[in-house]
Amino acid sequence: MTTATRIDGRKVAAGIKHQLAGRVAALQAQGIRPGLGTVLVGDDPGSHSYVAGKHRDCAEVGIASIRVELPATASQEEIEAAVLALNADEACTGFIVQLPLPPHIDMHRVLQLIDPEKDADGLHPTNLGKLVLGIPGPLPCTPRGIIELLREHEVEITGQRFCVIGCGLTVGRPLGLMLTRPTEHATVTLCHEATVDVAAHARASDVIVAAAGVAHLVKPDWVSPGATVLSVGVTRTIEGILGDVHPEVDVVAGKMSPATGGVGPMTRAMLLMNIVEIAERGGLSSAGDPTEVGA
Ligand SMILES: Nc1nc2c(c(=O)[nH]1)N[C@@H](CN(C=O)c1ccc(C(=O)N[C@@H](CCC(=O)O)C(=O)O)cc1)CN2
Fold first, then answer.
1. pLDDT tens digit string along 246-262?
2. Which of 21, 56, 233, 236 could form a disulfide with 244 if both were Cys (CB 3.0 to 4.6 A apart)?
3. Distance 258 CA to ligand 1 centre (A)
4. Do 30-127 and 141-264 fold alike per CATH?
5. What pathway or pathways are given for this protein in its record (predicted)?
6. Cα–Cα distances in angstroms (integers) from residue 221 to residues 72, 200, 232, in the given order
7. Is the peptide bond before 265 cis (omega within 30 degrees of 0)?
């Protein structure tokens, strides 16, 4: 019984962070200290873990950390004030608002307030518009990480049939846009909860990206032998973290990413990449000590 080649995001992300550390050192030699800001609202354990990981990565490559934490009861106005403060903070090169936000918050109003020049997530309407139009701008971190991961593992993209399961704001929708750019030129089927027979779309694909947040959704009989399968969505249970791809897919797929240690570390590496790119373009940044605000 053969098993799929493991797509190792931790290893690729480590290489990218090593390279970024050199670029950060070069910026610092010019008196520029890039800084990442995060706005974290509420107690979601996943969000806390992801934001902690983002700041661990910052420390590793020499990027300053600016952490803003608000309670789950924070009002729309309080969150918007935090965004405006980071827009104005010269120590902050770029920042993100960790999603999801609590249900009483209008996420779109919050994202629209981010200065597009400081949008480290590429989720501001101006930057998503640039992506649609093919104008350079910051790219959403998970889709960017997925494309890097495929390239590093020599998975063909151009002309290949992709089945992207889930069309959320951070993964599926922007991934569809990025994969169909002239630089990628993949053929993409974007599946969602109203798609009839997702399994048939998946079986007809060379690459499956599972980003639905449904544990073990993709079964072995959804995968054509030798296809590449990326597990992106996760479900946290008392037994641990379950990915969107059933572990037995391993015996059918040619290449496969694990539920953790695959796309997740690449999302974080691409966030740092966006920050370094903003700083290198001459975006706002500062020299001096790391900043820790509200940690
Ligand atoms: N503002 C944003 N919010 C969210 C995004 C995003 O791109 N921008 N994406 C997701 C979650 N996400 C980013 O924040 C994310 C997911 C996973 C990881 C990660 O490192 N995962 C580890 C496991 C970590 C753990 O044990 O909890 C892994 O895969 O090894 C980082 C970031 C939703 N929100």
1. 999 999 999 999 999 99
2. 233
3. 14
4. yes
5. One-carbon metabolism; tetrahydrofolate interconversion
6. 41, 10, 19
7. no
Mutate to test the pocket of ligand 1, among 50, 119, 124, 178 (most ligand atoms within 8 A of CB): 50
pLDDT of residue 39: 99
Q: Is a pLDDT exceeding 70 seen at residue 284?
A: no
Please, are residues 137 and 130 in contact by the beta-carbon 8 Å criterion? yes
Superfamily of domain 141-264: NAD(P)-binding Rossmann-like Domain (3.40.50.720)
- Catalytic residue (one of 17, 57, 89, 98): 98
Mean pLDDT calculated for residue range 228-244: 97
Name the catalytic one among 44, 115, 119, 121.
121
**Is residue 163 within 8 Å of residue 205, measured between CB atoms?**
yes
Report the atom number in ligand 1 closest to the C-alpha of 236. Answer: 27
Task: For the chain, give the percent of residues with pLDDT over 90.
Answer: 94
Indicate if 54 belongs to the active site: yes
Separation of CA 134 from chain center: 19
Please answer whether residues 79 and 108 qualify as being in contact, where contact means their C-beta atoms are separated by less than 8 angstroms. Answer: no
pLDDT of residue 164 exceeding 60:
yes
pLDDT tens per residue across span 29-45? 999 999 999 999 999 99
Angle at 166 between CA 164 and CA 168, to 5 degrees: 120
- Indicate whether 286 pLDDT > 80: no
- Domain 30-127 CATH class label: alpha beta
What pTM, to 2 d.p., does this model score?
0.95
Pocket test for ligand 1, best of 39, 267, 268 (most atoms within 8 A of CB): 267
Instruction: Confirm whether 44 is a catalytic residue.
Output: no
Closest residue by Cα to atom 18, ligand 1, is 264
- Which protein residue has the closest C-alpha to ligand 1 atom 27? 49
Q: Whose CA is nearest to atom 25 of ligand 1?
A: 49
Interatomic CA distance for residues 168 and 125, integer angstroms: 15
Residue spans of the domains in the chain: they are 30-127, 141-264
